[in-house]
Specification:
By secondary structure, this protein is α+β, with helices and mostly antiparallel strands. The protein is built from five helices and five strands, in the order E-H-H-E-E-E-H-E-H-H. Strands 1-2-3-4-5 form a five-stranded mixed sheet.
Length: 150
């Protein structure tokens, strides 16, 4: 009999040490102090959140999202800032459950859109683009992503 206890819950500051390896797996390694400061700044914004998927008190994944109002539409935008499933838990539906968690929050602000960006290397390494497409997310190829770091 399988007695795995799984929950999705909001992250707390004391969760940061266990989030570090997940961020490293996503390609964003950082120091504990940096992530603690970033986490506190992030969740201090209304509509911003980090949710953790736990199985038997072990972190199996997390999703970070931000909410904003659009100027060009009546929709509320929820942007997936990061979705991470631990390597040993991939392919078990955890990423889908985390995305549905954010979608349920977004539905409370209808009309709403949920969007994200996914690096090209993620498709090669983990088939991330196929994962999002299977959840109903369209790749709007009529636009390009531009960025300037200051």
């Amino acid at each position: 009999m399988n007695k795995n206890k799984s929950i999705i819950r909001n992250a707390q500051i004391n969760d940061i040490p266990e989030l570090l390896p997940l961020l490293a797996q996503l390609g964003y390694p950082c120091a504990l102090e940096d992530l603690e400061a970033r986490f506190l700044r992030f969740i201090d914004n209304p509509g911003y959140g980090v949710a953790i998927y736990e199985i038997n008190n072990e972190f199996a994944g997390c999703v970070a999202y931000s909410r904003s109002q659009l100027f060009v539409s009546n929709a509320t935008r929820f942007h997936i800032e990061g979705l991470i499933v631990a390597e040993n838990y991939r392919g078990k539906g955890i990423g889908k459950k985390l995305m549905l968690f954010v979608e349920e929050i977004a539905k409370c602000h209808s009309p709403a859109i949920v969007d994200l960006t996914s690096s090209l290397w993620r498709e090669e390494a983990t088939k991330a683009h196929s994962f999002y497409q299977n959840l109903g997310y369209d790749n709007k190829k009529h636009s390009a992503y531009f960025r300037k770091e200051l």
